[in-house]
Structures are given as C-alpha cells and as structure tokens.
C-alpha cells in the first residue's frame, strides 16, 4: 500500500505537538487513526520515526527528523499544486512559514507584511522569531520555508539571497563625551564599558570588530533584548555596537541616543533571505522573495 498525504500530515502533526493525543486534538480526529497511520508509514519505509516516552509523549529519532522535514516539503508542494490546479488565474493562497531574526523583525516585518497583504491578500504569513541557531534549525527541519536573517555563520546547505548590506555603528547617549564627533575610533571605545547584544553569533561578531584591530572590549552588561541595549546605553550605562537603526533616536524611556559611524574599516553584514539549497520554493515563498527584493531597501 502506498503512503498518503493524510498519513504524512498526521506524522508532521505528532512531530509538531509532541504527542499523539495533542495531534489528535489539533486535527479533530481519533488517536487510533493517527497511531495507525504512523505505524503504516514506519512499516512501509522500515524506519522508526519516534521514541515513545511513557506519559510524556514522543520525540523524533534522527531518521524521523529527516523524514519529517521531507514530509513537510512534500505537503507544502501538494498544497501549492492543489491551489495551482484550481486557481491558475486567481491570486496565490495558503500559508507561508517565515522565520525572522529577532532584531530584524520589528524594523522590517511590519511594512513587509503590510505590502504582502496588499499584493497577495490570500497568503497568510505565519511568523517564527528567533536567533541564528533557532532559525537555521527551523529551516533545516522544514518548520519554516524562508528565514530573514544575517548571513552570519550560516550552514553551507542554505542558499542566501542578499537583500541589504549594513555596517556596524556606535550607539551612545546624547550627552556622552564622544557623541559630538563625526566618527568614533575603536581605540577610544575599547577602554569604556560596553553593552553587548548577547545573541548567538551576534556577540562573537561585535567582539570581533575590536579583535580585528588588536583590541578587547570591556563588557559591562549583556542582554539578548535589542531595546534593552538601547535603553541601557541611553541611561548612561555604556556604549553599544549595533547594525540596524530604528528611525526614532530615543529609547523606550524617552532618552535621546546618537548613532555614529566607526572610524576604522570594519566588517559589514548582509541581511539575507535563506532557504535550504535542495528546497524548491513554493509560489507563496517566491512571491515573498520578490516582494522583499522590491521593498526592503526603502524600509531599513
């Protein structure tokens, strides 16, 4: 007997919800039906997809992780094919699973999604925010189809479409002694207290800006929250290095901030859309890629 799309959908649901019971509730179907579908798939392919934990649900085996990622891709294209066949002359429809780096999201996504809704009103974009590690894992597992993030230590298996290149800058409180300069030297910053955006890969990048000049930053505070970095700097707790600039020069508390270029030559970062190289994008994803290429330069 050949496998069915329904069986694959049941398999993915159990992987997403962590148990047969939760998957059955989410899909409004019976637990025995889901268990039977998974057993048939395991028998057909000679694989074990899950490790069963008594009273604690299930977890994916390594084979299960790979198979579920492929199943997600197949289901996405099956949905795409169905819509394409029934509505060749109509607007695109369906769900687009989109990952976005946590600091990029508030600056770019609101207007990108507004433009997406205007151009493709029948596409529903479901957001998954995270850091670089979380977004890569979501892409490689098939949980998301695209991710908007920095091209910073990305896996070789991911394709990157560059949208914008950004240089790091110095963030200072408005009354800082260096705030009146046209540019700030890393030599002047190194002895001063730093507020570090402490996200995976981001922290190494910002510290490497100093190390490439033979310097070491003096970190006073670390936080994963972009706006807390800005707030700490605005309140006089130190300076920060960041890449993206909100349009407002104020912290949440209303304190004024100054953004200044770095005097030395420093490494830039590319903002990219990424997806697995072996993945054939759905029409929904292709539409979002095109929209980003057309709009993102005027948003950041």
UniProtKB/TrEMBL annotation:
Residues 1-61 form the HTH lysR-type domain. The keyword Protein biosynthesis does not apply. The keyword Cell division does not apply. Keywords: DNA-binding, Transcription, Transcription regulation. GO terms for molecular function: DNA binding; DNA-binding transcription factor activity. GO terms for cellular component: protein-DNA complex. It comes from the Bacteria. PANTHER family: HCA OPERON TRANSCRIPTIONAL ACTIVATOR HCAR, TRANSCRIPTIONAL DUAL REGULATOR HCAR-RELATED. Belongs to the LysR transcriptional regulatory family. This is LysR family transcriptional regulator. It comes from Aquitalea magnusonii.
